[in-house]
Amino acid sequence: xxxxxxxxxxxxxxxxxxxxxxxxxxxxxxxxxxxxxxxxxxxxxxxxxxxxxxxxxxxxxxxxxxxxxxxxxxx
Length: 75
Description:
By secondary structure, the protein is mainly α. The chain is built from 4 helices and no strands.
C-alpha cells in the first residue's frame, strides 16, 4: 500500500517535470589543485598527457581528470 502510493507520487512529480533524487552538490572551495588552473591550461594547450601533468603536479591522475572536468578547463 505505502510503496504503491510512493511510486504513484514519484510518477506524478516526474510527469510534472520536477527533478527526482538527491540534488547535486557544490564544488569545494579549496582542493589540491586550487590556484593552478592556468598552469593546467598551459599544459593542456601544449598537448601534454593528463597522466604526465598529474605526475608533475604530484596528484592522482583521476584527481586531475575530475578537476579538469568540473572546472571545464579542457580546450
